[in-house]
């Protein structure tokens, strides 16, 4: 296709990547200078001192969950199955984030100082079980990283003719730089910037298709074009062959696969546990609920808009290109010319790099705390932890690129990995959830059930492919029904296994060992007072008073009840109450119903933008004001170092995004 030149491809990958690396490095320096945040202490680098507030956490959740597949695969599903395809992608990948709110608050209650979810496994079950789940966790990060680079490099190469191998190696480069400098806090801030850009581009695409495009320009015209397209090329197994129906067998099968696969990549991915760990206990539940609902707007709005536009314009896209996720750039270029191609390139670049940063810091945490500090150097100092984590960020970044190239050369694409991930990763989901939520689960159950589930999943997948297609190849194993069999076996088999083994010999775990997990002392990483400026005193009343242990426990229990009720209600609404009656009714949308559907998707997009792009700025306005005031004083020569400060000085204490400016008399 090559709508854009190679120079544009290299410019985006290298130029914007370098821009973000420089900007985030400067932001890290600013946080250190003006808010006394020492990003190179191990606790700040890996956990942001567990104090990040709701808006920024929600934005980071959206960013970490917005893979290349979120944009590319969801659009392909809308193109392939119609309106039901994009809905099942959105619903099937939102419920996991909503349900994770329960795990987030239970983590705060039962292991408040944990750095990774595997530390909880080790504290409860010991070495052998810990190693098993470490393998699943690293496999999750590897699969997700491979999908990111496969999808991103395919789009960059498709639009610009940039060498696909070069794209695989250059895409993670800027991410590695700012992750090295700023750790998880830089990742959170970059997540916010990326999420904001993504929503701006989605709004632009949506308004173009439904309002300004001379090719479509309104929901009513889109409806007429979709009806005509379905008459010429009816969709197999859809009610009346229509694109405008939730009654689609293919989309329903994909939805089940989607729910299984994404359950594993949320529950077993340290990136999501990392955000729960870094979030302030008071905000963890609300952040996950807000982030999940905001994320729903991306596939629900963007995929419905662009995927259906491809069908409305009757653009002929090959099955291989659909599987590779190239519907989005193709349709965007057809709608808006080079501007649309460039916008889709930026969109995918933002998704790939933001999610890659989450995976880098996740793998760094796992290998640092669960390998280096557990088996190689127990009790390693904060300085040693930082040094080792830096080496992992660089090493895994390079490994991601090499793996993506290998998979590309063997013919594995984004669509194949996306449907396969549940077969490989789902076996660990149920026993891992029970590890945190069920005190009775036995060590034997936690060890055996994921291994048995993986074996059964692989057998079901390959046997079904052989039985239906008569051979085992990439093409046969990528079919919907082999993938469905493998995913269901992988996620279901461990459940009766762990129940039976636990029933035979239940435990009665009291959580004391998980509560004893300690933070790392960072005495050698003392903040350099000579770099801290003396901001003009301006008291700010703290909005988060320190709670007593009893008050904190009451607050966490209340949040836990809210998380369980709200997440279950929202999950039932999204995957049962909304779609299944529409599937069973065989209803084909009328013009008025389709227009209403479009209006709802647009409102959802704008509300999500307010939640994860506007609200975090409002929430952090005190910190932002302190930083800008400090920059102004430095630029105008009015800043004073703490060494020269007067007897009345201001000390700035940062708690993630909340800054308290406290005026104190020096003794």
Automatic annotation (TrEMBL):
TM spans (from-to): 12-31, 52-74, 86-105, 131-158, 164-184, 196-216, 287-310, 331-352, 388-409, 415-437, 444-464, 484-504, 562-581, 593-618
InterPro entries listed in its UniProt record: DUR (IPR031155), Na/Glc_symporter_sf (IPR038377), Na/solute_symporter (IPR001734)
Keywords: Membrane, Transmembrane, Transmembrane helix, Transport
GO cellular component: plasma membrane
Pfam families: SSF
Regions of compositional bias (Polar residues) in chain numbering: 642-657
Compartment list: Membrane
Family matches, as Gene3D superfamilies: Sodium/glucose cotransporter
Keyword Membrane: yes
Bilayer topology annotation: Multi-pass membrane protein
GO molecular function ontology, one term from the record: urea transmembrane transporter activity
Coiled-coil segments: none
Domain of life: Eukaryota
Segments for region (Disordered): 638-659
Keyword Oxidoreductase: no
Similarity comment: family membership: Belongs to the sodium:solute symporter (SSF) (TC 2.A.21) family.
Entries under NCBIfam families matching the protein: sss
Name of the molecule in the record: Urea transporter
Organism, as annotated: Umbelopsis ramanniana AG
């Amino acid at each position: 296709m090559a709508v854009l030149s190679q120079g544009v491809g290299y410019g985006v990958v290298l130029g914007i990547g370098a821009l973000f690396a420089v900007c985030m490095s400067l932001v890290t320096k600013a946080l250190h200078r003006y808010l006394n945040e020492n990003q190179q202490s191990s606790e700040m680098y890996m956990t942001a001192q567990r104090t990040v507030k709701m808006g920024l956490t929600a934005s980071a959740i959206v960013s970490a969950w917005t893979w290349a597949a979120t944009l590319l695969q969801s659009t392909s599903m809308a193109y392939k199955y119609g309106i039901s395809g994009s809905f099942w992608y959105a619903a099937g990948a939102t419920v996991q984030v909503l349900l994770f709110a329960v795990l987030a608050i239970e983590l705060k209650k039962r292991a408040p100082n944990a750095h990774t979810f595997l530390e909880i496994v080790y504290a409860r079950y010991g070495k052998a079980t810990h190693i098993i789940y470490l393998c699943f966790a690293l496999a999750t990060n590897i699969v997700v990283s491979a999908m990111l680079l496969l999808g991103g490099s395919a789009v960059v190469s498709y639009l610009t003719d940039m060498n696909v191998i070069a794209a695989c190696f250059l895409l993670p480069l800027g991410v590695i730089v700012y992750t090295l400098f700023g750790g998880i806090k830089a990742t959170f801030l970059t997540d916010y910037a990326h999420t904001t850009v993504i929503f701006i581009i989605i709004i632009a695409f949506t308004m173009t298709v439904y309002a300004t495009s001379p090719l479509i320009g309104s929901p009513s015209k889109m409806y007429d074009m979709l009806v005509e397209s379905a008459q010429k090329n009816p969709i197999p197994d859809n009610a009346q062959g229509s694109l405008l129906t939730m009654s689609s067998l293919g989309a329903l099968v994909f939805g089940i696969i989607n729910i299984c696969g994404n359950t594993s990549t949320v529950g077993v991915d340290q990136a999501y546990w990392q955000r729960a760990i870094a979030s302030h206990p008071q905000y963890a539940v609300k952040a996950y609920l807000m982030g999940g609902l905001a994320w729903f707007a991306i596939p629900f709005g963007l995929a419905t808009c662009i995927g259906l536009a491809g069908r409305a314009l009757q653009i002929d896209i090959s099955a291989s290109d659909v599987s590779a996720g190239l519907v989005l750039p193709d349709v965007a270029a057809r709608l808006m010319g080079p501007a649309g191609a460039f916008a889709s390139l930026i969109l995918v670049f933002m998704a790939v790099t933001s999610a890659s940063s989450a995976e880098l810091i996740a793998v760094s945490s796992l290998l640092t705390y669960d390998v280096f500090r557990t088996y190689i150097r127990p009790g390693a100092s904060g300085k040693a932890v930082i040094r080792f984590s830096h080496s992992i960020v660089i090493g895994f970044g390079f490994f991601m690129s090499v793996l993506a190239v290998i998979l590309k050369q063997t013919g594995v694409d984004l669509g194949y990995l996306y449907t396969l991930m549940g077969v490989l990763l789902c076996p660990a989901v149920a026993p891992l959830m029970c590890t945190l939520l069920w005190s009775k689960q036995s060590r034997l159950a936690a060890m055996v059930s994921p291994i048995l589930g993986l074996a059964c999943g692989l057998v079901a997948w390959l046997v079904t492919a052989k039985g239906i297609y008569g051979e085992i190849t990439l093409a046969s194993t990528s079919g919907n029904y082999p993938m469905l069999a493998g995913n269901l076996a992988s996620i279901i088999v461990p459940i009766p296994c762990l129940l039976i083994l636990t029933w035979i010999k239940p435990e009665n775990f009291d959580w004391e060992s998980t509560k004893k997990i300690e933070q790392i002392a960072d005495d050698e990483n003392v903040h350099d007072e000579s770099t801290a400026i003396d901001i003009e005193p301006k008291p700010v009343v703290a909005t988060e008073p320190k709670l007593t242990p009893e008050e904190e426990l009451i607050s966490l229990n209340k949040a836990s009840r809210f998380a369980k009720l709200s997440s279950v209600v929202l999950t039932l609404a999204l995957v049962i109450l909304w779609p299944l009656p529409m599937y069973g009714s065989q209803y084909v949308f009328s013009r008025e119903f389709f227009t209403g559907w479009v209006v709802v998707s647009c409102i959802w997009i704008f509300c999500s933008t307010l939640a994860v792009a506007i609200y975090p700025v409002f929430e952090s306005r005190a910190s932002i004001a302190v930083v800008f005031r400090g920059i102004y004083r430095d630029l105008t020569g009015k800043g004073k170092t703490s060494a020269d400060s007067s007897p009345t000085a201001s000390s700035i204490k940062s708690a993630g995004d909340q800054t308290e400016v406290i005026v104190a008399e020096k003794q």
